[in-house]
Design brief:
By secondary structure, the protein is mainly alpha-helical. Helix content is 72%, strand content 0%.
Length: 80
């Protein structure tokens, strides 16, 4: 019916979730946490490289990524 296995409802839900994730990252994460989180999760940089680039410890990178994940989980609970 839709060709090549496309699911328009599933695609719409995925798109809406993607927008919500971006909104939470943009509006709910403090700037430092947002920067570390995006480097880790979007750019897929290793923690050591993020720490070196930003002049912070690997432990701080780990803490900021954890903080970002917890914030996302809290604000996206209804979608999970």
């Amino acid at each position: 019916m839709y060709g090549s296995g496309e699911d328009p409802v599933g695609s719409l839900h995925a798109s809406m979730l993607e927008e919500k994730v971006a909104e939470v990252i943009r509006t709910k994460l403090p700037p430092e946490c947002r920067e570390v989180f995006l480097l880790s999760r979007v750019e897929e940089m290793p923690n050591a490289e993020i720490g070196w680039q930003l002049g912070i410890s690997v432990k701080t990178v780990e803490n900021q990524v954890t903080r970002g994940l917890k914030t996302l989980q809290r604000h996206l609970r209804q979608y999970l």
